[in-house]
Predict the 3D structure of the following.
Amino acid sequence: MRPAGAVNPAGATHPAPRPGLRERKKRRTRDALLRAALELFTARGYERTTVDDIAEAVDVSQRTFFRYFASKEEAAFFVARLAEARFVDAVRARPPGEPPLEALRQSLAESWGSIGEAIEQLVPLELHMRFYQVIETTPALLAAHLRRATELEEEIARVIAEREGLDVDADPRPRVVVAVFGAVMRVTERIWSARGEATLGALRDLTAAYLDQVEPALTGDWRGDRPPLA
Amino acid sequence: MRPAGAVNPAGATHPAPRPGLRERKKRRTRDALLRAALELFTARGYERTTVDDIAEAVDVSQRTFFRYFASKEEAAFFVARLAEARFVDAVRARPPGEPPLEALRQSLAESWGSIGEAIEQLVPLELHMRFYQVIETTPALLAAHLRRATELEEEIARVIAEREGLDVDADPRPRVVVAVFGAVMRVTERIWSARGEATLGALRDLTAAYLDQVEPALTGDWRGDRPPLA
DNA sequence: GAGGCTAGTGACAGCCACTGACAGTTGACA
DNA sequence: TGTCAACTGTCAGTGGCTGTCACTAGCCTC
């Protein structure tokens, strides 16, 4: 079986059948590993914490760690996966008439508005936010993050294409909007993490400001003296 | 010393002082390793070829491989680095009046026009092109490729900002254009490599077509029935 | 052109991420 | 309560990568 699978199957209608002891224990172990991993990663760096360190902190064997997480990297991005899934759901739920770029913007605002508490149930939100700085400054993690981001983009491009009744492989526009949107997000992520203020609010504001700059940036004429931002 | 360093220091004015025996031998070893690596990677896959395999193919020790390349990954991207450096140079050399996006487009066309022969001196061009499909289909390599791409983007953003007399950290536009440009390139790279035709020409045409779609993709209205492309 | 210097190399030992195999333990359920 | 299956620990092994050390072979000086 796959302990690291989806937290909850999508179509659960009943109030939650109270998992058995075994299930709860597993969950506790996984959460403990997750939390220990993130704490060690942010405290002493990703490369400098070994999987053995994490396992030891939770008092399980290294082998057990790898039964919960396919890799050290997977543990690092476990929480981020939650947020991404929310975002995709939000895009799917957007009203059909809305222009694509606007739908993406709104989905982002929406999912960021509600993701905090979901994360908090797993690990302290502040820890998760600080961990982004570790991602951004660790080559191996940054690489993994970018790869995951492109996978996410492909998924979203398909959603957008479906909304608009287009074929992703025949019409370039879905992939292009999503790619542009993603590119701006990554630029803001980097700048945001480079500054000290690792809060969701700061990231949200910065992203909004940068998205507003896409059109001005693409026009040939930059002489219009647009006001630079803080 | 660093055998994998720049092929030729920029400011070489003399006709080339004929390197000693030692230097030539080193160069030959490095090129042999490079070629063997790329051949093995494309033949049986990146993950399935060990560094020992590569070293054995050239009849040196594994330790020696790591004296030429800091990592297996570095060997994989050695040739790509050449192409990137050319591109950056091309951007720097663009006439100052040109709009940023246009400068990037032209630089791309220019560098792709001349990079072929430079690569051919190191490894067969066709091998290099086929290797892109390996990159695209190997998670570890794709991740590394994306990270390298963002580093390149940062460098180019600074060049663009300087051209326009702006401060990269105060004005978002340089980073945004470059990010958008890079995003489109990556989308086309992926589509191009997914199709069979691994030629520079095919990539160039596809990129041009996709760049033309940026503006249409960003406008809210997609009803204009733009012609999808082949 | 003999001898010393040192860059380049091979051999070896060791770290860390990760995997397969096997056996012991413990919830779940009849 | 006993059986089964899930979960876990232990152990051995692979591959990427690094440090160390001794040795060989270009290079340079006298």
